[in-house]
Amino acid sequence: MIIYNETSSRFINHVLERNIGNVLLTNIQEKMNRSVSPSELLSWTNSLPQMAKILRDAELKEDTHVLLEYKLPSTEKRIDFMITGEDNKGQQNAVIVELKQWQESKIAHGDGIVKTFLGKRERETVHPSYQSLSYKRYLENFNEALYQDSSINLSSCAYLHNYMPTRNREEEPLLNKRYATYVEQSPIYFQFDDKQLMQMIKDCVSEGKGTEIAKQIEEGKIKPSKKLVEAVNSLFEGNEEFILLDEQKVAYEKVLSIYRSLDLATDEKHTILIKGGPGTGKSVIGLNLMNFLLGENATIEYITPNQAFREILRKKLIGTSEFVEIRSLFKGSASYVETPNNYFNVLVCDEAHRLKNQGHMKKKIEGENQATQIIRSSRLNVFFIDDEQVISNKDIGRFDLLKEEALKQNSVVHVVELHSQFRCGGSGNYLDWLNDILYEQHQGVLLDRDFDFQLVDSPQELVEKIVHEKNGRLLAGYAWDWITKPVNGQLSKDVVIEEHDFAMPWNDPNRIDWAIHPDCSLQIGCIHTVQGLEMEYVGVIIGNDLSFNPETNAIEVKREHYKDKGARPAKPKGKYEIDPLDKLVRNTYKTLMTRGMKGCYVYCCDKELAKHFKQKMQAYDITRIDEEIKY
């Protein structure tokens, strides 16, 4: 969606009349049915006059076109400024200009990352050249009019009209050699570089004729390019990690058969609810669906509400591929507030139990939740769900709600169930045993030896066995406040167990990929950053929010020790009402204790709970002793 598409002369007049802000505001209200913040309005009135001056000095022909606030399809990102036209050789061109009001910056760790003042404090953000280049590459891979083999040549740059670089440009942070690759591909212009920017624009669009180019861009069909589809396919070829087994294959083919039967000329809509516990291979099915349907020219996106899980999936799939635009196929669950009805052929939502009522505070539509929006936006929507992984009061994506939301929109509902276990050593027995303990089902399930489960006596022992010996990750329930903020480069050690003189930080909030980053091995992951992920070995610290009462012979959830205020439901008023927090805490520990593919070691802060676990493990020990005697 493009908010403003006018000739360059009309744009200059709107600026000179000091009316450009009102025009943009009116267009946004009409096209998007929303308003803008005062800061956004201020950015227009500060930056756009700078561009108007440059275009006026360039003396462009009448039908050069200016496009403002181009919302990248199915994202929250918008291109500030684009100009279209032909050069003196007849080449059709479109130039992206990313506008910044920055005045200073610093070098930061990470590829393409810098520090600058945003929102009244210093923050890490992407380098302006990286940002403008990423928008260019996104359009080249998703807008049919701008594919890399298109007749329209797309280029990009950044203009920091308030920024005075250092006298010695070799010392300027934004021109540091670590950013050279991005600056070479997408040049950066500073406060007194307006003449150079003017000349570059003039060289690209001096002959006008931008009307048809702008029209092609605005009306360009949005779907992944052939090159991008081929890049995704190449990542799956020969990769055994994505092979479908048994009921995974059945679920996969079920989705494809429904997709092939869709009548795209009607409003026909289908919803597929795929139910499966931890380790049943839901993500493998979803990723295979995305890969195949991209090859069928379907418009499809892969949704994960959990940002950490989404980032790991991206890195796991992309690896060393040069097509970083594959990242754009993965979206958060709050991305579909304004998406038109049936805009996508298929939307695949993994970890759907983590869906929320609303996503961004500024984007609320009465009577809608994220499930509503996903179903509305696609002809075929596939939800992977597990009600027993609901771990927050804000999680709404339960099976019954998804089914209800689908029926409200006249979507035909299909249900598929997965049972086979591909995590936890393939041990369905371990899951049954864990359910028997955590949910007190009293089925008398005995733990066998298919999965490496151990109880340890101290958190230090957990660190030694999991981190140092198994190269695994530590996890913990939300029984400690999260204060973790880097101070002098060090994270505060929030997870404290005084009796063992143990203290360790939660995972670094600035490292979404903490679960696979080598610098994060001595950090503790919480439920919100680990759900959906899997490691070979995990060590779980069970805090005092889960305890065992020997008098009642039952596990109890201690509300006073549960520190996740945002996820905590209100305490029931009735004396005999069941506290909803009880199920959420049990679900949390089940989720944490099923992240390991080969093993899970546990330390319990509550001694009585540790005794209870040991008693439940006795049958395992007896079996092991009997086998040793036999041999």
TrEMBL record:
Residues 268-405 form the AAA+ ATPase domain. InterPro entries: AAA+_ATPase, P-loop_NTPase, SLFN_3-like_DNA/RNA_helicase. Gene3D superfamilies: P-loop containing nucleotide triphosphate hydrolases. Keywords: ATP-binding, Helicase, Hydrolase, Nucleotide-binding. SMART domains: AAA. Pfam families: SLFN-g3_helicase. One of its GO terms (molecular function) is helicase activity. This is DNA/RNA helicase domain-containing protein. It comes from Paenisporosarcina macmurdoensis.
